[in-house]
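re: ur question from yesterday

yeah so i grabbed the chain u mentioned. its 345 aa long if i counted rite. heres the sequnce exactly as i have it in my notes:
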Amino acid sequence: MKIAPRQVDSLLKSPHDGTYRAILIYGPDQGLVRERAMTYALKIVSDINDPFNAAHLNGDILSQDPARFFDEVEAQSLMGGQRLVRITNVDNKFGAILKDWLKSSAASSAPSPAIVVIEGGDLRPRDALRKICEDDPHAAAIACYIQDERDMATFLKSIFADYNRAIAPDAIEFLAYNLKGDRGRARSEAEKLDLYKGTDPGPITLGDAMAACGEGRAESMDDLIYAVFGRNPHKAVISYSRLIDEDTEIIAILRSLQNHVKRLLDVRTKLDENHHGTLDSIIDSLHPPIFFKVKESFRAQIGRYNAPFLRRLLMRLNELEADTKKSGTTPETLVADAILKLASF
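ran it thru and got these structure tokens back, copy pasting raw so excuse formatting
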């Protein structure tokens, strides 16, 4: 069963009712994948490390001993209730094993002794593991896509509310801009900020956020985006290589480029309509706002690109994302080539 985005929170928060015997959580935002998998796992057992109620199998174990999966899912809990079987770092070969188990367990009227929670990668629609979980009525598939700045800001505010921490708007802006696309890192940085503030009862300021969290990989992403649209191919290639070396997901890079083009197009369209105010007022009205460090560069780009070009570019970036998911292609090479061409335009 394919779980719609609006249904995800309800599924993760509600007690397991026996509908699903396997849950696949996958997507480019691996931080969100791990977080959601943990949330669901803890609805099944109170301790994922309990040897009597939980088992953890990875791709290496299953490739050497596929029967181990069936042993674990059929084992009865010694403490009563259902057991948890966590599956990580598996490829589509595991799909055949999962399909056999789902078919055999569905033939039995008895509840399954175990619930299987699978942490998947950035699976494509035709990937066997994803297709099995989307098509089988006793399995569910939850996608975890890259968050934009607005979603990240909302997520961060909820974390700091749990910490009983007030945070300044420009600090949230800085963090959302720098952490977009990586929910796991966002939670880690929020925890770091909370420890950094210690017993200080004052709100988290922009200075606090910059001092505690730095700019790290997000600075490299900014460098890439503004080198590309600033027509600096040398700097664009260096920034792109740095991001790849840091194991940044290709999809995160593409989505960042797409979102930037969308913002440029939004401002350019409003400016062309001649009734939405001045360029500065339009830029200042954007939500989330343009980070102050790059505002002048963003302003210059508005004058450099017209709306028809930006629409064509956005379409091409969408096509490029689809191309990276086709078999036989090398995503890093495809994106590198596109970045170099655009920066040299």
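noticed a couple things. The chain is about 60% helix and 10% strand. also The two ends are 44 Å apart (CA to CA).
anyway ttyl
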